[in-house]
Amino acid sequence: MERKKRTAPSIVAMKGAGEKIAVLTAYDFTTARILDEAGVDVILVGDSAAMVVLGYENTLPVSLDAMIVLTAAVSRARPRALVVGDMPFMSYQASIADAVRNAGRMVKEGGAETVKLEGGAKLAPRIEAILEAGIPVMGHVGLTPQSIHELGGYRVQGRNDATRARLLDDARALEDAGCFSIVLEAIPWQVGREITEAIGIPTIGIGAGPHTDGQVLVVNDIVGYVEGRTPKFVRRYGDAKSVVSQAAKGFVDDVKSGEYPTLEESY
Q1: Could you point out which of 89, 165, 206, 267 has its C-alpha 20 to 30 Å from the C-alpha of 159?
Q2: Which residues have a catalytic role annotated?
Q3: Domain segments of the chain: what residues?
């Protein structure tokens, strides 16, 4: 049976049906096709591209124009998965007008079907305005990488009663503003469960425990492209780095030795 196209309403319906939601990041046409064929429900064109694609130390430097280019590449794969375009730092914080205009660019130029914004209750007016423009919004609370300077680094959020209550209030505010789902990042699993049970829209966890309605990871992490220490919540499912390295080494060796190309591989 052919897989149906995922939409914001169908993702919401998955929570009611008790079906877990699988989300992965992608930043290019080829990877998007592979992930879609694997059956992911949502492809997030994350601002994590700043680090894993463009080589920055954090997500802050990536521009809206760069995110549009990457989102357009993913959308051209025409995936059955829902395509979410991540709104980069300072593309929506300055004003409601900026938020609507730039979300519109993500859809019109990038081909995104929904957009994602980081932050809690204070973003409600921006979310409502984007929704009025006809663009579904995914929220994001907990560890919000665009606020690392305010948070003091990449730290688990919601470890005490006050921050736990604030996260719950933020999640409820995002639901009330009209978000169709919320990413919960780097929070204790108990808080992830509490928020998931308290709201009617899907929660997508990343380092938020097993009780959320879905999970998201960075594709570079799961295929083994990233070296060094990875976060506790990352599970590696492959070793693509070794595959690519072995292929590249074989090519170099054959070119150096004159074994490639042969006459059979020539016109």
Answers
A1: 89
A2: 185
A3: 8-236, 239-267
8-236 fold:
TIM Barrel (3.20.20)
Global pTM exceeds 0.70: yes
Alpha-carbon separation of residue 75 from 21, 29, 71, 78, 119 (angstroms): 20, 7, 6, 5, 25
In contact, 237 and 222? CB cutoff 8 Å: yes
Q: What is the pLDDT of residues 192-222, one digit of tens each?
A: 999 999 999 999 999 999 999 999 999 999 9
Measured CA to CA, the distance from residue 71 to residue 250 in angstroms comes to 33
Q: Ramachandran region of residue 209, left (φ > 0), alpha (ψ -120 to 50) or beta?
A: left
pLDDT bucket at 229, cuts 50 / 70 / 90: confident
